[in-house]
Amino acid sequence: MLKCENRVMEQLIVDEDVRLKPYYCPAGFLTVGVGRNLEGNGLSMGEMLALISGNPLRKKRFPPDYETLDGETLLMALIRDMKANGITRDEAMMLLRNDIYQSDADLRRKVKWYDRAPEELKEVLINMCFNMGIKTLLSFRNTLWYMGAGEYEKAATNMLKSRWARQVKGRALRLAERVRALK
Question: What is the 3-state secondary structure (H, E, C) of the chain?
Fold first, then answer.
């Protein structure tokens, strides 16, 4: 378990909300739970099997041999089921935890100073990575360089100059202020 898992979960719930029926996010992607992009990130085979086997009502709606279905067929069937019946809050939290761990793993692999970063900065980076994905986050070269160098004022200023900040407005302001407050 990440030290900051619960805090990041709370922050992402504020930023993304919890929606138990699929909806289209502002970028136009089918999304469920706490910002889980079903078209981009989809669901892993393990997540799909857990969503079916862990929910007795949903399991009754699937054929007995659902475990033998290919991933694409299973995903489409699950999306249809989610549109009709939604997911539970517990299921949304399971997906959120998986997304947080994926963001943390991506950051550990791609940002060499991440493990040595203050916890507060890790929380901000996980939030940003969750929101935009690691590939887009890595395009914030100057911001990441300033963060790694401990130049938090410059990092925060740079964050707010981005197209991302114009898109997510209040979220970017909150995250930049947290970076600016680091010593």
Answer: CCCCHHHHHHHHHHHHCCEEEEEECCCCCEEEECCEECCCCCCCHHHHHHHHHCCHHHHHHCCCCHHHCCHHHHHHHHHHHHHHHCCCHHHHHHHHHHHHHHHHHHHHHHCCCHHHCCHHHHHHHHHHHHHHCHHHHHCCHHHHHHHHCCCHHHHHHHHHCCHHHHHHCHHHHHHHHHHHCCC
- The edge-to-edge listing of strands for the beta sheet with 36-37 is 19-24, 30-33, 36-37
**Rounded distance between C-alpha atoms, residue 30 and residue 23, angstroms:** 6
Percent of the chain with pLDDT over 70: 99
What confidence score (pLDDT) does residue 27 get?
Answer: 83
Write the single-letter amino acid at 174.
Answer: R
Match 């989809």 to its residue by tokens: 42
Q: Quick one: pLDDT band at residue 1, thresholds 50, 70, 90?
A: low
183/145: higher pLDDT: 145
